[in-house]
Amino acid sequence: MSDTAVIVPAKDEADRIGATVTAALALPGVDLVVVVDDGSTDQTGKVARAAGARVVRHSRNRGKAAAMESGAEAVRLLDGDVPRHLVFLDADLGETAGAAAALIEPVREGRADMTVAVFATRVKLGGHGMVVRLSRDGIRRATGFAATQPLNGQRCLTRDAFEAARPLAHGFGVETGLTIDLLRKGYRVVEVEVEMSHRATGTDWRAQLHRARQLRDVALALAAREPVITQNLNKLRPKR
Length: 240
Fold this sequence. Notes:
Elements: E1 4-10, H1 17-25, E2 30-38, H2 44-50, E3 54-58, H3 64-78, E4 85-88, H4 101-108, E5 114-119, H5 130-143, E6 155-157, H6 159-164, H7 174-184, E7 189-194, H8 205-225, H9 227-236
Parallel strand pairs: 1-2, 1-4, 2-3, 5-7
Antiparallel strand pairs: 4-6, 5-6
């Protein structure tokens, strides 16, 4: 039964996107892989298409949340009478994307509205976990849910759950926002351990800039969902 689509936001991932698409297309029940080429300057789109994906291209980089929205809209246009479940995967998973089958099963069987991957083998990261702690603590304050890997982007959702979470939080705040919004609305979120791995961020200036953007986006997602913080921020804004 083909009831699931995979969406892969991608920017400058020509070296890994082909293997990721191939593995995703082999997942049970998956008949569609949409790669959203988010302003790449390499051959990401071309390689993804050659591997069998449908490709949606952003002419400029619009960020992860926008890529997820574009991918979900592309799937909606191709859906039949019954909406597909949506799996979101990072572009650099390579052949380990095949482990996403474990994320799909609880959703397909009606035991979860959204699954979140927990990587069994953790890659040593160049950062110090500040963004992870910020997200985890914010989710706990907002919902009481203790997220193991709150920033993990490997997720499977029902179409209904995805629509309930829109509009998505901006950029790298999307995972934090998704978890909080769905839990607050009564949707069932289940963590699933998987054997996946992707490229770790380094310690050079590009990696530090990436983490700074993550920190900003997660903080903004949390602020928008915590009324007291939002009220205080509004008080600090200059009056016109």
